[in-house]
Amino acid sequence: MPVRSRSRRAAPVAFVPAGLQQTRTRPRIVTAPVTPSLVETPLRPSHTVPTPVAALAALVEAPVRGFPADTSDQTASDQTMVTGVTLRAQQTLPGDLFVGLPSLIPGRAHGADFAGVACSAGAVAVLTDPLGAHRPALAAAIARRPGIPVLVHADPRSVLGTLSARIYGDPSTALSVLGITGTAGKTTTAYLLEAGLRVAGAPTGLLGTVAVRIGEALLPSTFTTPEAPQLQALLALMVERGVTHVPIEVSSHALALGRVSGTTFAVGAFTNLSQDHLDFHADLEDYFAAKAMLFDGRASAEVVCIDDDWGQRLVTGKTTTVSLSGEAIWRATEITAQHSGSQTFRALGPDGFDQRLGVRLPGAFNVTNALLALAVGHAAGADPVLLARGIATAEVPGRMQRVDRGQGFVALVDYAHKPAAVAALLDAVRAQVPGRLLVVLGCGGDRDTAKRPLMGAQAASRADLLVITDDNPRTEDPAAIRAAMLTGAAAGPAEVVEIGDRAQAIAYAVTQARPGDAVVVAGKGHESAQEVHGVKRPFVDADVLTDLLDGWIHD
């Protein structure tokens, strides 16, 4: 893989990092593609009370059509009972309502085209839009199983959350669902909050970017916020297993697309807002409007960080405010950073709360995350003293995650993949290391293209060495993504090197490190695969970094 640097000192030859040719332990880079299963059994409660199709139709005002025409629509919908709901035909279970949605991506198949698979697997009813109701594939599926009712709604996505919640018994009403939204900090705040609630004695669940936790069971996550059928099934399963409190990351997509419709929130929380997802939202105002939907009355209590203008716009008479820089109900002062990366600070809150709090993550933004977690837990009824004990012990995968193999310099992995997050990450690390800052960074493909030069600029203005590499190019040309980042990086003082192969990029940074330096591998964090040209292959930044450090130390 060619290496390109601004100084032109690197020759355009196949890259082999000096000093690593004889490493004893090779990086764990597996070349077999990752093929996600479409037929895995979805997580659901063991029992649901059957709901008549007629009741579901009335709930969302969706007319029911019966096929063939001589079938009594009313009789079919009165007698048909639904016990589950799915968007994926391959995951249909007997008794399901199958939902065939139009694709959000032009040119892709309509969900109703897969009704035949769903009906063959036991779907007892179908929900779709007027276009889907006239798809030949749906008509053919119903012809093979006459009498299956079809609910038709102008915007089925908008009512899917409400229907899913009803089918699974409105599980959020039996839980304290604690929703956290914002651009950065959602995952860290959710993990800190869940750790605090556990120490406070609450049986917890967790739903977010990194994982789904139900009690002691930890499962991988697909979306920041699951699709409505999966979300409601997971909440129902949590109720069944005795969970009482559930921190959940709430993305702008989830709010805009109605994934959390039908969910009752005990607390809604806001971290911050900066540029992201402008491939989906028209502009920052549209992005903010989606985030603000969590504070439209659906949450019983609201906790908002007011350290940016966006948070200040959300404040109402019932808002619990959080701040590091101004007057608020919850404040942090006297922040002390440790060489280990941990921090302590004095937390001031309502009812005279005044206590030093610890967090095992560096950076002022992680003090904010810890304070926000404390405020949300308190709003949910937990003892803040116990919450603080749990927060002090929490670790978050892929967020300022240290890899220590005795190498004499700091090495860490972080999920920072937005301009503001990159800036905050590098500022935090710079403040805690005496040496140079060596950064490995890429940008994802098929996402917001405007942030690529901005990320390059933020990194190059802070790093001593910036290695621009591939993140998840997905279906885009990786070189084009790197070129956009290089454009932004050109104005910075950092030495900039381009190495497309991510493992080789990490290896190069490791070979350049000296005692007292910091190697920061950013962008992918906890992710377990890299997607290049539409193919996913196993790749974990922390594992690759660990193996490279082991080989570097032993040689």
Describe the structure.
This protein has 555 residues and is α/β, with parallel strands linked by helices. Helix 7 crosses helix 13 and helix 14 (419-430) runs parallel beside helix 15. The radius of gyration is 25 Å and the shape is globular. The longest helix has 16 residues, at 364-379. The protein has 18 helices and 27 strands. It has 3 domains: 3-30 and 399-554, Protein-Tyrosine Phosphatase, Chain A (Alpha-Beta Complex); 51-165, Udp-n-acetylmuramoylalanyl-d-glutamate--2,6- Diaminopimelate Ligase, Chain: A, domain 1; 169-393, Mur-like, catalytic domain (UDP-N-acetylmuramoyl-L-alanine:D-glutamate ligase, 3-Layer(aba) Sandwich), CATH 3.40.1190.10. Mean pLDDT is 88; it is low at 1-39 and 67-72. The strands form 6 sheets. Strands 13-9-14-15-16-17-18-19 form an 8-stranded mixed sheet. The chain has a 7-stranded mixed sheet with strand order 1-24-23-22-25-21-20, sandwiched between helices.
